[in-house]
Design a protein that fits this description.
Layout: E1 6-9, E2 12-19, E3 22-24, E4 27-29, E5 31-34, E6 39-43, E7 45-46, E8 51-52, H1 55-74, H2 82-97
Parallel strand pairs: 2-6
Antiparallel strand pairs: 1-2, 3-4, 5-6, 7-8
Length: about 100
């Protein structure tokens, strides 16, 4: 999947960027969503473990962070519920990857 450079959620443009690694606080993450800047960041890998994420892992991370962004735009309390966001985004990723046209 080709990850977009920008999406609009509600009326707000969100930039999507990739970085070699993503750290939030003191935790290495696959990605992040910044509620203040509306930037979604996708990690290309984990530099600590010298591991590169493949295209499927990066796509799954995109859907995960996009789910955070959508829930935040909706004012939904579930935006910070990692279990919900992970379960929802995994199903979204699977639905998109298995869609038949």
């Amino acid at each position: 999947m080709k990850i977009p450079k920008e999406v609009v959620i509600g009326n707000t443009p969100h930039q999507i960027c990739t970085k070699k690694s993503v750290v939030v606080g003191n935790k290495i993450c696959h990605g992040s969503f910044d509620e203040k800047t509306h930037i979604i960041t996708i990690a290309k890998g984990n530099l600590l473990r010298e591991y590169k994420y493949d295209a499927d892992e990066q796509a799954n991370t995109f859907w995960h962070e996009l789910t955070h962004a959508i829930l935040y735009d909706m004012g939904c309390a579930l935006t910070h519920n990692e279990k919900f966001v992970t379960e929802f985004s995994n199903r979204l990723d699977q639905a998109i990857k298995t869609a038949k046209f």
